[in-house]
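Notes to self, FtsX-like permease family protein:
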Amino acid sequence: MFKNYIKTAWRNLWKGKVFNSLNIVGLSVAIASSTLLLLTVFFESSYDTFHKNIDNIYQVYFTVSRPGAPQKTGSMPGPLAPTLKADYPDVKYATRVAGSPPATVIYGDKQIQQDVIFADPDYFNMFSFPIIKGNKKALSGINDVVLTQSSAKAIFGDADPIGKTIAVKYDDQPHNFIVSGITNDYPKNSSLGTDLTVRFENSQDYKYLSKVWDSRTHIVYVQLNKNVNPAKFEQGLKPFVKKYLKQDLDDLKRDGAKPLPGGEREALGIYPYKDNHFNTDMGAVYGSTISKTYVGGLLVIAIFILIIACINFVNLSVARSFTRAREIGVRKTLGAGKWQLLTQFWTETVIICLIALVAGISLAALVMPGFKAAFQSSISMSMLLQPLQLFTIIGLFLFITVAAGFYPALLMLSYKTTQVLKGSVNTQKPGKVRNILLVVQFCLATILTICTLITWQQISYLQNKPLGYNKNEVISIPIGNSVNGDQALQLFRNQMAGQPGVIGITGAYSNLGRGKDGSNSNSVLGFNYKGHEVRTHEQKVDYDYLKTLDIKLAAGRDFSRDFASDTNSVVINEKMAALIGGGNVVGTFLPMHDNQPPMQVVGVFKDYNFKSLHEDVEPLTLVMQKDFPISYIFVRVKSNNLLQDFNRVQEKWHATFPNIEFTGSWLSENTEKQYRSEKRLSTIFISAAIIAIIISCIGLLAISIMVIVQRTKEIGIRKVLGSSVYSIVMLLSREFVKLVLIAAIIAFPVAWWVMHKWLEGFAYRITIQWWVFAVATLIALVIALLTISIQAVKAALANPVKSLKSE
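result:
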């Protein structure tokens, strides 16, 4: 019996090969797109789930009452982690984690760049990075270092690394460590990642920072004992804050800070580590983070595309049901039962869906390399074999076959045998359902089109907005840790002296944007000034910083070699000047550092966006103190051939530092990298909108063909009575145009709300304009009209004699 169903189904599918081919193409494209998007969602949602203790691990953070809105920060003072573990028995493990710029590992004659993190011994007890070789009690010794397999291979080759000594150069000093353990390479879906792990006591200025509570430099993770209530534990941290951070609380109260909902002006909280990958609201979080909005957007787009494809399937099946009405009537007359016919039609649906599923997954595998390159994704087709993904595929397949197959089948079975044999079928109800589904389809496509246009506008705005400094003609070069930054800057200045087209050379501790090294540092300083706390970003720079970056002075002067005292002077931005009183602040002395003389303000420069445009400009203070190293060199050029200038700078770098890799990049590239997630989202929206419109048009084309076939006699009569081609085309197109307009009206408020919420994440953003909605509607109308008009014109130009004769 089942074999007969398949044979009959295959014969019927072949008879309707045009409509079925359209169905298969639409479904396979939708399945391929949704597969790639859903795999990305699965991968992003799988971050850190491999940790055995994930449900009990938390990141500690502060919420501080500040002007404007409470601020969250993950930066912690040195004594907090050991004190917290000692004071609270509910804390099973606690570890501090701090990163550093890539360090130089020296072993014999070999020197390689490696990533380093500083952590406490509990790090390997909390997180599931098992030691596969060496001492299982990792970091038990103060000079122990734990390597990953790849790092051990790069440093030692095939030799056994356990017990060997390596030198790790960071903060301009080499430090000797003994290899005590080897771990597997960190998984790609791990928020934490490094090549080397050493004891936290080896971090810069540890002896000083481990005793002070007013300097916050690193992240703290804790693992609570099982069955500990996180909310109650968090409530129990209030006495801890009052005991150890009393000075902070007093300063905040003095400065007029409003109490937080819990009653205090500063609160200590814990954030579930299982959500760490989506923890974007704490700027100091260590590890890879991504907005939930981005992942949610991918999921919604995948669902949109599948819904549009299912609607297509239903509409095409309903449209074809009119041509199969007589077949159904004959089969009913010959004794076919309701469930027999239902099984037959569902078998046809399953065959179509299976073909589309295989074709879609094959297409996904074909385009996956390009998808991974475009979206910096780490997905693979092997992920489909995991239980959750397999269950999702099976569930989606069943949903599509049921949702897209049963309604048309039940509709065909509802036809009365006497009516279908006479050739008269009531099409009013199917027509209403078809119209509703078409409205939903074009509504979703219009939403995606509007989102695409607004995202593209915002990205263009971010790329073209003046930042207050020259980003187009400045090369940023990371120095690394193998040489002293200040000495490297001076050597390179001497090498570049007299080179044509070079306008200025300077250096700084922090980069602008994100360079090829991927590093992004941030230093915030707080100090008491005239009875209140002043907080400012602090940036170590060298001479000619403002000149090289073309930053304009508002008052005073830049750092100058003519003034030896400038090593104890500062240059501040306008926001910082307003914070310390405004007006003429040049000559003011600021007590910025304890146990050091006050620093004099010698200049005020115009505000510039030293952070991404997600954030407003904040107070910034430039210093020339030796406490910070120079980590980046900036070279400003001016000529008609920027590529030639870049190559000349690279050649001079290799001549000056033959053993240091050149990883320079234009600042314009660095700033654009700050908006990678927005660019990826824009590309996805564009791709999804195109796919949604194509699938919708496939269905619209098939439906228009069917409508015209049903109205062949009417078209012939109208032509005989003198109707023009234009009037017939308008008659056939009018109904579909009305549906597209209804879809657009429904889409407008939804798209506006979604994009308005998204734009709130930017301090600098566009205003949503009315013409965006008009353009999106016009695009949908033009595409729909072109799709329908092709068939309408053919029908209108057909010989009416043939049309009436065929009837």
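- The CA atoms of residues 148 and 564 lie 47 Å apart.
- The longest strand covers residues 173-183.
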